């Protein structure tokens, strides 16, 4: 199995030895370090940060969870030793623990996962293991929260490194959304129109905190994934004159555009500005209000990369994720969720060249899985999701061995009051039909 981590180690070593002549490049040589160095740096600086990788320039909110120090023995252990310890702990735990690995997680961790998928597939996979006392989620914070909402109360959801958040999810916080909502209600009122449609309805992407999912549940709104965003927006437009979509502006814009909403009826809401930076009339004329959020992994893709891929590989199929900017989605052959990308490659019957616009770990894994095709990442620079990268086999070994010893560490718990409303929004999503 190919591994971004191994590639990064090699490139960084070569860069140190050969300088400019090194093959390949990474967005940060700091990626070659152990994530515990960032846990320590955060503790010393007293401020959280996302660490090296695509989100390194994003500002982490002060309330971002931080990881305490990983015990020294796990930092010092070799990959082989960690592997043996993880497998031994897994064997000792048997059905008492299930390990979930997100598509964007590094291979060094994925090799121990019982299920691999996107966030919602994984939360559902956990439901097939009701006997598991612990669900170890090798993904990011909002995914562990969703698993906690959907799992049984006596199941503990564990995030191996608490600092593994999501910079996009952090771009919309509950207070700012509540403030935005208050301003919108002042302008639109709350009365439905003649067709019974409310003035505005909140829609949150799965990549958001449980508090925001609960906000949607409480205000008649709904959750969406990148697979069902179109169906969810159609559902919302049947019930509302307009939609407030957070946190990912790109998924919102790309989906609404595909539904025929004109760009001039899509506004951006900047939470740092009064009325989000809009005037009242523009808000009254709008159909979609997009939160000023984005994924720094998918923001890296651009039209120039697509043009180069088409020049270098005539006939190449370009598939990108809808978290990419609109011009990238428009220039690609197709756009869709991680599941869509995987299925598109699996469905190709003739050897095909695919240029993919999504996270590098998933692209490398697809390349290894489908050797009959040429699969490469549109971005030539190796720059993984910073927060997924915070999970390393050392943390996995630690949480599993603690479980064997009867201790639950790094448990993610969503308050009961939040769970109820969040579940409502998730249930609406499951019931929404095209
Ligand atoms: S890839 Fe982007 S949206 Fe996904 S977890 Fe990383 S920062 Fe968040």
TrEMBL record:
Residues binding iminosuccinate: 102, 119, 205-207, 226, 321-323, 338
Enzyme class: transferase
Cofactor: [4Fe-4S] cluster
Function noted in UniProt: Catalyzes the condensation of iminoaspartate with dihydroxyacetone phosphate to form quinolinate.
InterPro entries the UniProt entry points to: NadA (IPR003473), NadA_sf (IPR036094), Quinolinate_synth_A_type3 (IPR023515)
Pathway annotation from the record: Cofactor biosynthesis; NAD(+) biosynthesis; quinolinate from iminoaspartate: step 1/1
EC numbers, comma separated: 2.5.1.72
Cell location: Cytoplasm
Entry similarity comment: Belongs to the quinolinate synthase family. Type 3 subfamily.
Cofactor note as given: Binds 1 [4Fe-4S] cluster per subunit.
Species per Swiss-Prot/TrEMBL record: Pseudarthrobacter quantipunctorum
Name of this protein: Quinolinate synthase
Catalytic activity from the UniProt record: iminosuccinate + dihydroxyacetone phosphate = quinolinate + phosphate + 2 H2O + H(+)
GO MF terms held by the record: transferase activity
Highest taxon listed in the record's lineage: Bacteria
Record key words, sorted: 4Fe-4S, Cytoplasm, Iron, Iron-sulfur, Metal-binding, Pyridine nucleotide biosynthesis, Transferase
List of residues binding [4Fe-4S] cluster: 166, 295, 385
Primary location class: cytoplasm
